[in-house]
Amino acid sequence: MGVVKGKPPLIEKNPQPFGVILRSEEELGKGNKYNDSFILRCPHHLLAKIEKVNMKEEKEIIVTWSLASSILPTMVGHTIAIHNGKEYIPIYITDPMVGNKLGEFVPTRHFMSYESTRKDTKSRR
């Protein structure tokens, strides 16, 4: 892969789907100064965990707090336990999930309703 002037090199270890440019968060920095149409963000610590599991023959559950990380093609077939604020929820990664964020598959808020208590108080009157 060639290097374009002024831009960091692309991640060569991960296979790239057509039309998708993969850059790590450290290469991007805080702001998006590149005019790429679509960028997948994934922190180095998560990429390192996935590479370790890929080299082993055994499958392990990868634990992460990173909800904003994008799902990369190298994650397909792995189970990733994502923290929702209270507990870790294991998610099995499949092909249609590539390009989405990890947080899209984990509900972080629990909606409560008080309808049952309201019905009880009305019946007592």
UniProtKB/TrEMBL annotation:
<dbReference type="InterPro" id="IPR005732">
    <property type="entry name" value="Ribosomal_uS19_bac-type"/>
</dbReference>
<keyword id="KW-0694">RNA-binding</keyword>
<dbReference type="Pfam" id="PF00203">
    <property type="entry name" value="Ribosomal_S19"/>
</dbReference>
<dbReference type="GO" id="GO:0003735">
    <property type="term" value="F:structural constituent of ribosome"/>
</dbReference>
<dbReference type="GO" id="GO:0006412">
    <property type="term" value="P:translation"/>
</dbReference>
<keyword id="KW-0699">rRNA-binding</keyword>
<dbReference type="GO" id="GO:0009536">
    <property type="term" value="C:plastid"/>
</dbReference>
<dbReference type="InterPro" id="IPR023575">
    <property type="entry name" value="Ribosomal_uS19_SF"/>
</dbReference>
<dbReference type="InterPro" id="IPR020934">
    <property type="entry name" value="Ribosomal_uS19_CS"/>
</dbReference>
<dbReference type="GO" id="GO:0005763">
    <property type="term" value="C:mitochondrial small ribosomal subunit"/>
</dbReference>
<protein>
    <recommendedName>
        <fullName>Small ribosomal subunit protein uS19c</fullName>
    </recommendedName>
</protein>
<keyword id="KW-0689">Ribosomal protein</keyword>
<comment type="similarity">
    <text>Belongs to the universal ribosomal protein uS19 family.</text>
</comment>
<dbReference type="GO" id="GO:0000028">
    <property type="term" value="P:ribosomal small subunit assembly"/>
</dbReference>
<keyword id="KW-0687">Ribonucleoprotein</keyword>
<dbReference type="GO" id="GO:0019843">
    <property type="term" value="F:rRNA binding"/>
</dbReference>
<dbReference type="InterPro" id="IPR002222">
    <property type="entry name" value="Ribosomal_uS19"/>
</dbReference>
